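Data availability (excerpt). The following record was deposited with the supplementary files.
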Amino acid sequence: MKEEMSSVDIRYVVRELQWLVGSRVDKVYHDGDEIRIKLRTKEGRVDLILQAGKRFHLTSYVKEAPKQPSSFTMLLRKHLSGGFIDAIEQHQFDRIVKIRVGDYTLIGELFRRGNIVLVDSENRIVAALRYEEYKDRAIKPKAEYKFPPARENPLEVSFERFFELMRENEELELVRALARKLNMGGLYAEEISIRAGFEKTTPVKELSDEDLKKVYEAMMGTFNDEPRPNIVYKDGNMHDVVPIELKIYEGLEKRYFKTFSEALDEYFGKLTIEKAKIERTRKLENKKRQLLATLRKQEEMLKGFEKAMNENQEIGDLIYANYALIERLLEEFRKATEKLGWEEFRKRIEAGKKEGNKVALMVKSIDPREKAVTIELEGKKVKLYLNKSIGENAELYYEKAKKFRHKYEGALKAYEDTKRKLDEVEKLIEEEMKKELNVRKIERRKKKWFEKFRWFVSSEGFLVLAGKDAGTNEVLIKRHMAENDLYCHADVYGAPHVAIKDGQKAGEKTIFEACQFAVSMSRAWSQGLYGADAYWAYPNQVTKQAPSGEYLGKGAFMVYGKRNWLRGLPLKLAVGVINYEGEDYVVCAPVDAIKAHTDRYIVIRPGRLKKGELVKKIRGILEKWGYKVREEDLNAILPPGGGEIVEVVG
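Predicted structure:
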């Protein structure tokens, strides 16, 4: 399976991405060995990924940005953010890309371990993913950046030079000669051999000058072939991603793409997800092993505590069950030790044992320091303290049983907690194993006209639109509200204008949902309110005409005539993925509206969770459902301010 891009891949993707020249660098993110550059292009926002030693293409598989940007990130942002891309190039035919932004050039080395280096206008190193020294060059601050030693460029080599290189070592097989002498790798060396009509293992010495000309022409044809990006599958699994149709892969399953960047993104994106899953499962398996070891220790402790608790309880009961005997023994032992002393008492007991005295035989040990005698009673050893009554002796054992019971209960709670954690980890492992490898993405596409606004589809199927800011409020009312629509507005300063398209045919349910949307998308949400008022009116009541002596700013309108009020509307919304006009959209709308179009949704309301944290939680849930959604897209559809998740359905 392919792990990194070849020189040929880089050639094709660099040619394809020339349309990005002139794009503005919005922000740069760094995570591990890759950087992601967010660009504003004439086609909208896109993400460009550059992974050291691996790949370079546009991506829709966007990782969550690290909470704390690295120093490398900060340097890249300092010098690149706000700048415009002036050039995207491949260095000769090497696995090196160059992105020039103003006075700075970002160099991506995609060979071996790889590196990402930022240089200034004088080719001095400003920053690098990692600083290293080699035999012929050094990657360190302020040093002049030097490219690795040049290799033969097959795109620029003349036939004469090609002929010379191939004849240098004629013992080599054709495929090896091409790969070694012309910097192209084994795959394309084999492809060129096939296109030229020769076995790849043919020794060069067996090829005539005319044969070598055929090989040369096949090489030039291959590297200038028409793009036909595709992913190649073997046994149902991804095997390779290539920019052109290759004869070497004839007969294998293929999936074609409009652009090579899309093919690369699908291939490496899925590869990244697969590796991440394996890594996550590995961590979960390690956690499971740790929990199992803890569980075994806790089980041993529970057994020990339970045994000690039961033994002490039984001895306490045994003392009372043999009340008369124990009382007599205590009395006899007290008198004997007081009269004879402990040493003489011990001697008398030993003598009694030899004589077969029943009481002496019961004694197992004597402890003068504690003034105690341990006897065996019904197979159990009972320690009797001569300075305590029979009740006090029994109570000592009951007290010990009580302590062990408390320890047992504490250990049982810890055991159950560990068991719960183990169950959770096992469930997570099971979920990871069940998950499909291909996380569905909501593809970036040309936005439809209604996506300029906040919007949703009511439970009755009516399109409801709301302004996002003063500009979109102005556009919504002036350009998109027709005479058959209905107008809604919350009784909150600065609330968005809302229009129900063809709303005069809508029922009460749609009007309620539109008014609820109006209050939820207002500052009432960020103020943490749970209810607010809104009204609806007809379009002919809404005008830009201000009262005498007043001025209406951008996005402001007057509403004259009757207002139809809905009081105490709850601020509660749901987030879900709905299909509208044949496309999948992530939408935030009143719960009933979302419920009518999908079985899976997340209910939210105002709360203390910061918006960024709320976005991450919702994104995580959507990912579990198979939807890859960018945080910024979620951020754009959610109401202003923080919130909390009330319920997850599905």
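Summary of structural features: The first strand starts at residue 24 and ends at 31.
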